[in-house]
Design goal:
With about 350 residues, the protein is mainly α. The radius of gyration is 51 Å and the shape is elongated. Strands 1-2 form a two-stranded antiparallel sheet. It is built from 11 helices and 2 strands, in the order ααββααααααααα. It folds into 3 domains: about 55 residues, no CATH class; about 120 residues, no CATH class; about 70 residues.
């Protein structure tokens, strides 16, 4: 005979619906009854299963944060102040603070690039303005030539009437020349034109060579100023001069002076070494070294080297000193004069 197991009841031949109804009634009468699970391929009825909620884990702060794919950690003195409520805000503050260094670096880089760009604009602006002015004048001149307005053409070009008349007379005379002389004249005109064009090309070439030389020298100076042994001295030199770029300016001044007076094209590092030899003792000690150490290695006493400040001499005794005397009258001056020993 089947017990209370519903599976056994079904196996004994009882109606499935009847067994399910009995199981539901038993579940309602006894809420503590164990739920029916599927077994041997027989579907079990839906049962209410109480899931025990796990206890909430204790919150542990995360002291790390990431900025630009680099992991950092909170400062030790900040960690005790971090709670679950303020952790997100503090982390956000740290991320922003560390991100400022990157932003500042980009700002300084952009500022430098902008300064370089402005320098180039300032360098080329006069040329651009001059080019625009020439282009405008050429358009006006071309319009005059197109209309045959030679009076205004000659006026724009600064050609006076006398020069025009002489040119016309010479052209008429050339028409009367033999053919070989005409060819010779035309060749002379063509040669002069070539000379003008060659001169302009040579000037452009020289300008380009000069610009390349200047750019190369700027690169050499920049490289030399970034050397480890030079950077600290450059910062001190600029700070003492109260002028950013003072060291760079001094290098170019000395280089130009050496080239103009001695014909020497000194390398930037050579000029830097000269400047460092001259100013390094002053920058290191704070005072220029004007007193040389005598042979033998003995350093003179500072008190002996330092010149004493001049003092006013006393006239007569302490009681009638001209320095201490106040409300000096002419009579008293005469008395003092008479009391002085004759010279």
């Amino acid at each position: 005979m089947a017990g209370n197991n519903p599976i056994e009841k079904i196996l004994d031949g009882q109606d499935v619906d009847t067994v399910i109804n009995e199981m539901d009634s038993a579940q309602i009468d006894d809420p503590q009854a164990a739920p029916i699970v599927e077994e041997a391929g027989v579907p079990a009825t839906e049962a209410v299963v109480e899931i025990e909620t796990p206890a909430e884990e204790e919150w542990k702060p995360d002291y790390s944060f990431k900025v630009l794919d680099k992991v950092h950690e909170f400062d030790e003195e900040i960690r005790p102040l971090i709670t679950k409520e303020n952790h997100t805000k503090i982390k956000d503050l740290y991320e922003r603070a560390y991100g400022l260094d990157h932003v500042k670096g980009n700002y300084e880089k952009a500022k430098t690039e902008l300064t370089d760009y402005k320098q180039k604009v300032d360098e080329y602006s006069p040329r651009i303005e001059k080019y625009n002015e020439v282009e405008k004048n050429l358009k006006i001149l071309g319009s005059m030539i197109e209309k045959g307005d030679l009076d205004n053409v000659f006026g724009e070009l600064g050609i006076n009437d006398q020069a025009v008349m002489e040119y016309a007379v010479n052209k008429l005379k050339m028409q009367e020349l033999p053919q070989d002389q005409k060819i010779q004249y035309q060749n002379q005109v063509r040669n002069r034109s070539n000379e003008y064009h060659d001169k302009v090309k040579q000037e452009d070439y020289n300008q380009n060579i000069h610009k390349q030389s200047v750019d190369l020298r700027n690169q050499q100076v920049d490289f030399a100023l970034q050397l480890p042994d030079v950077t600290e001295f450059v910062n001190k030199f600029d700070t003492l001069s109260s002028k950013p770029g003072a060291m760079r300016e001094e290098i170019f001044k000395r280089g130009a002076l050496a080239f103009q007076t001695q014909g020497l094209d000194k390398a930037p590092i050579e000029i830097i070494n000269e400047i460092m030899s001259q100013y390094k003792p002053f920058l290191n000690n704070g005072t220029p070294q004007t007193q040389e150490v005598p042979q033998g290695g003995h350093t003179p006493n500072t008190q002996q080297v330092t010149q004493k400040k001049p003092v006013l001499p006393k006239i007569g005794t302490a009681s009638n000193s001209a320095v201490k005397q106040t409300n000096m009258t002419f009579e008293k001056l005469m008395e003092l004069r008479s009391s002085m020993p004759a010279t």
